[in-house]
Design brief:
six-stranded antiparallel sheet, alpha+beta, Chemotaxis protein chec, two-stranded antiparallel sheet, single chain
Length: 146
């Protein structure tokens, strides 16, 4: 299970070290794609296949919203792999989308990991911490309990 928070730097060529604790869960082959709130999602291959099955089951031929969702995730997806130093290449289009320049933060989210621009993550995390009681209360109203 992917969990925790890890900081790394992306190099000038767009290579990024995958945290050692994530490498076993991600495996040798994984998929990187756009994520919500301008971060990137990294899925282990089996989790991506499960997600992609759900996307492929959508009526993308006739439903504009379904098509847009598939475009967002599948259209930006790229296969990732590790070099001998545990790095993967983040394509320039994904780096631009997530505003990844130098400092990044990996966040483990269970079935996937997220890559955030560090400044954006600090801002997002501060907002969550400030509102966590309301967030927890809202989730409880939806049936989730801590």
């Amino acid at each position: 299970m992917l969990k925790g928070e890890y900081s790394h730097n992306i190099d000038a060529k767009g290579r990024l070290i995958i945290p050692a604790k994530f490498r076993d869960d991600l495996g040798e082959n994984f998929v990187i794609t756009k994520g919500m709130e301008h971060c990137l999602y990294i899925y282990p291959e089996n989790e991506w296949n499960n997600f992609e099955e759900k996307l492929n089951a959508l009526p993308t031929t006739t439903d504009k919203t379904a098509r847009s969702l598939a475009h967002f995730f599948q259209g930006s997806a790229t296969d990732g792999d590790l070099d001998k130093q545990g790095r993967t290449l983040i394509p320039s289009t994904l780096r631009e989308f997530a505003n990844l320049d130098k400092e990044v933060v990996f966040i483990g989210m269970g079935k996937r990991a997220e890559i955030w621009d560090k400044a954006r993550w600090v801002e997002k995390n501060a907002e969550v911490e400030e509102n966590i009681e309301d967030i927890a209360s809202d989730m409880e109203a939806r049936g989730f309990s801590l």
